[in-house]
Design goal:
385 residues; 9 helices; 35% strand; 6-stranded mixed β-sheet
Length: 385
């Protein structure tokens, strides 16, 4: 096969469809998957046509095994995999019209990058848009071993996107990318997914990937789907403590109910540690939650929802209908790109993390060991029971 040295070599018509017909929504109906003696819980899930589901979970959560099941490399233990009107459950991989980017790039080492991209569906596809978007032209005549890990990942991503697959599966697509290069590749991938409107399932352990790329986010832990919803729902209103941890919630404060009351339409909980009040929480209790005095709860607060401000000189906690301000002491400050991450100690013994822009950092004139206030909207204090 001739090497790709100019655009005219790729003049064959683009693939515009498949024998399966137009792609549609991905539906998992009572799906159970597994490897050896391990198997998942039963999962029901739907990904609308053209949207991206990001599955978030630690190693061993069952994410890659689920992708292998969707691709047909592993048989489903129970249930059904449906793509549009097609039942894929018993179809072999070659019949599924799926693009799969493996965690390891899995490129053919004895083929040039050009020939790797022309394999399978790529033999009849117009590759020019992908070569442009992923900046692959300089590497076409090179071999995989001549590229860096990040460069090979770009090639693997292009190969998965070649030929208009009806379903795209991405297994940790940024795992081999240097941290400084990840934001750029995330933006490129997000643009490609929007442009091509391919129904996509991406698995990762990085909450940043989920927030930036997912139309939907699912949280997997030990083969159980803990929560699925929009990024806003999952990251701002995690369903439980394991989900909050996987979603990267920075502040998880274990507290005890000291008293319970009502204020208009709101429930009010006085929360503390060992009978010492810390703050009052106001909101609507989760459906079915019955909290007694002494019950243990967790307040989940994302660092970006905590706003540094001058400390109060008169009270450890000031509170109104919409917000509260906690007095704290700065114990660590780290510059993370354009932001300062601040770690603070509360008088009750808990710690809090927050961010500050450089301008705010200078305005507050913060010093390690010095006081500051932490203002939080009541709506951002998420109660886990």
């Amino acid at each position: 096969m001739a090497a790709l040295t100019q655009r005219t070599v790729l003049a064959t018509p683009a693939v515009t469809g498949s024998a399966h017909g137009a792609p549609g929504a991905l539906r998992l109906r009572g799906l159970q998957w597994g490897i050896g003696a391990w198997q998942s819980a039963v999962v029901d899930l739907q990904v609308p046509r053209g949207q991206t589901l990001v599955l978030l979970g630690h190693n061993g959560a069952g994410k890659s095994a689920l992708l292998d099941t969707l691709a047909g490399f592993l048989p489903a233990r129970a249930g059904q995999v449906q793509l549009g009107a097609q039942d894929l459950t018993a179809q072999p991989p070659e019949k599924r019209c799926i693009g799969y980017m493996f965690q390891r790039d899995a490129l053919f080492p004895h083929w040039t990058i050009a020939r790797n991209l022309q394999f399978g569906r790529g033999a009849q596809a117009d590759l020019d848009p992908l070569l442009d978007a992923l900046d692959l032209w300089p590497w076409l005549n090179q071999y995989p071993h001549q590229l860096s890990g990040g460069q090979r990942q770009r090639v693997a991503l292009a190969r998965a996107l070649v030929g208009a697959p009806e379903l795209l599966l991405l297994d940790e697509p940024f795992s081999a990318i240097d941290p400084e290069a990840r934001p750029g590749l995330r933006r490129t991938l997000a643009a490609l997914l929007r442009e091509r409107a391919i129904t996509t399932v991406l698995v990762t352990h990085d909450p940043v990937d989920a927030r930036l790329l997912g139309d939907l986010v699912g949280v997997l832990d030990g083969g159980r789907l803990l929560q699925a919803g929009t990024p806003q729902q999952v990251f701002e209103r995690p369903a439980d403590l394991p989900t909050a941890r996987l979603a990267g919630v920075d502040n998880l404060w274990p507290l005890q109910v000291l008293a319970q009351s009502r204020l208009g339409a709101q429930d009010v909980l006085s929360l503390g540690i060992e009978a010492r009040p810390v703050l009052d929480w106001r909101g609507t209790l989760p459906a079915g939650a019955e909290l007694q005095v002494g019950a243990r709860v967790t307040l989940a607060v994302r660092a970006e929802a905590v706003h540094p401000c001058p400390a109060s000189a008169s009270a450890l906690v000031t509170q109104d209908e919409d917000s509260l301000t906690l007095t704290a002491r700065l114990i660590e400050a780290r510059c993370e790109g354009p932001l300062w991450r601040l770690r603070c100690a509360l008088p009750c013994g808990l710690e809090a993390e927050t961010y500050a822009l450089p301008t705010l950092w200078r305005e507050l004139a913060l010093e390690i060991g010095g006081p500051l206030g932490l203002r939080i909207l009541q709506a951002n204090l998420h109660l886990l029971v």
